[in-house]
């Protein structure tokens, strides 16, 4: 009822707050036999982490994953996997000044209205610190998916008004994406982005961003009509990430202006002639790449003064100091990948449970 658990067969429950002693998760329903070691988490947690470049929050967490259960001699046992990450660099004093105020654009006011109490330190449970555990759980999901030829990767597709120049979304250079702090697909633009972010940080303001995630190798058949549609679960999962304001599958909102003849992705024996559907029809994967776009809003914690009210309802000026991301969308790339991977493993296991006996169906259109 309190919605801290995600997934049906690969069920991930996260716990913890931004400035508590630790955050963690329990994964129930993980297939047995997946090789997993603490160092497997390092790469993706570092991609999500703060303090690794000047363009993100300067909080420096160690982000070391402790495996407490569910893994024996380096392999998952099928029993609940508990993962723990200790918070090592919380500076709660930074939040003293706003403990009695509601930051506009943040979750302070709504948590207060819902629970009648809140942990203001670092945003408490509403902090994106929680997403560390989504990324950690997805490391295991990605491993299982990779064993079935499924690869989930993301990149930034827009920061503020800046778009990738000369970029073809069908031929992403994933090495380029991983070679710069912005997950940007066009490396020639990195100096432009650095200058943009430096000026933004100096101004004290923040900016939104768009993330694109592509899952390749997904076979046809994953997804459960009608209430567990693959696109519906992807939208829900991506929308559950902090600061998400929009999710698109395939052509997304551009479909509004398209004609049916343009949008329908005609079928030939050699393949589909387009992918406006984003790899999903009727809530079920087509075998093409699954394509999602996610819109992130600008960070709401700003050192530029703004109007709000305090706990007594009096109008006050709010100024947020401390360490914040000027563009949360940058660090959101691995989080979006994680949510897509978690949806896919869950749907794959559900497909296997119900339709595992169906076997290959003719004709199979190449993805
Ligand atoms: C990776 C990531 C980092 C974030 N960092 C910050 C931050 O430093 N400061 C902040 O005010 N909000 C940050 N946010 C956004 C808040 O967590 C979010 O706006 C807040 O919880 C309110 O929820 P909502 O925007 O989804 O409505 C971040 C979000 C993400 C995804």
TrEMBL record:
Pathway: Metabolic intermediate biosynthesis; chorismate biosynthesis; chorismate from D-erythrose 4-phosphate and phosphoenolpyruvate: step 7/7. It is an enzyme of class 4 (lyase). Homotetramer. Gene3D superfamilies: Chorismate synthase AroC. The gene is aroC. This is Chorismate synthase. The lineage of its organism: Bacteria, Pseudomonadati, Pseudomonadota, Gammaproteobacteria, Lysobacterales. NADP(+) binds at residues 48, 54. One of its GO terms (molecular function) is chorismate synthase activity. It comes from the Bacteria. Keywords: Amino-acid biosynthesis, Aromatic amino acid biosynthesis, FAD, Flavoprotein, FMN, Lyase, NADP. GO terms for cellular component: cytosol. PROSITE patterns: CHORISMATE_SYNTHASE_1, CHORISMATE_SYNTHASE_2, CHORISMATE_SYNTHASE_3. Its EC number is 4.2.3.5. CDD domains: Chorismate_synthase. This reaction introduces a second double bond into the aromatic ring system. It catalyses: 5-O-(1-carboxyvinyl)-3-phosphoshikimate = chorismate + phosphate. FMN binds at residues 125-127, 242-243, 282, 297-301, 323. InterPro entries: Chorismate_synth, Chorismate_synth_AroC_sf, Chorismate_synthase_CS.
């Amino acid at each position: 009822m309190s919605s801290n658990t995600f997934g049906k067969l690969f069920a991930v429950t996260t716990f913890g707050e931004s400035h508590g002693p630790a955050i963690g998760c329990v994964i129930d329903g993980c297939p047995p036999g997946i090789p997993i070691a603490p160092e497997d988490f390092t790469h993706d947690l570092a991609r999500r982490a703060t303090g690794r470049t000047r363009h993100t929050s300067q909080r420096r967490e160690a982000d070391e994953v402790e495996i407490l259960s569910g893994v024996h001699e380096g392999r998952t046992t099928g029993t609940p996997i508990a993962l723990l990450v200790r918070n090592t660099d919380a500076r709660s004093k930074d939040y003293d000044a706003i403990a009695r105020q509601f930051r506009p654009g943040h979750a302070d006011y709504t948590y207060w209205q819902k629970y009648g109490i809140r942990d203001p330190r670092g945003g408490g449970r509403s902090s994106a610190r929680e997403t560390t555990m989504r990324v950690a759980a997805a490391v295991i999901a990605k491993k299982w998916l990779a064993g079935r030829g499924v690869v989930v990767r993301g990149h930034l597709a827009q920061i503020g008004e800046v778009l990738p120049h000369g970029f073809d979304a069908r031929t992403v250079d994933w090495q380029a994406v991983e070679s710069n702090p912005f997950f940007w697909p066009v490396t020639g633009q990195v100096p432009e982005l650095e200058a943009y972010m430096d000026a933004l940080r100096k101004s004290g303001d923040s900016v939104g961003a768009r993330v694109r995630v592509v899952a390749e190798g997904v076979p046809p058949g994953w997804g459960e009509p009608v209430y567990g549609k693959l696109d519906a679960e992807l939208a829900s999962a991506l929308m559950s990430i902090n600061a998400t304001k929009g999710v698109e599958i395939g052509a997304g909102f551009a479909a509004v202006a398209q004609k049916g003849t343009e949008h329908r992705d005609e079928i030939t024996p050699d393949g589909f002639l387009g992918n406006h559907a984003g790899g999903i029809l009727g809530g079920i994967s087509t075998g093409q790449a699954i394509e999602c776009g996610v819109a992130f809003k600008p960070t709401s914690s700003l050192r530029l003064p703004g109007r709000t009210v305090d706990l007594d309802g009096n109008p006050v000026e709010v100024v947020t100091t401390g360490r914040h991301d000027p563009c949360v969308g940058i660090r959101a790339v691995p989080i979006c990948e994680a949510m897509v991977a978690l949806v896919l493993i869950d749907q794959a296991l559900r497909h296997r449970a119900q339709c595992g006996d169906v076997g290959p169906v003719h004709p199979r259109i190449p993805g």
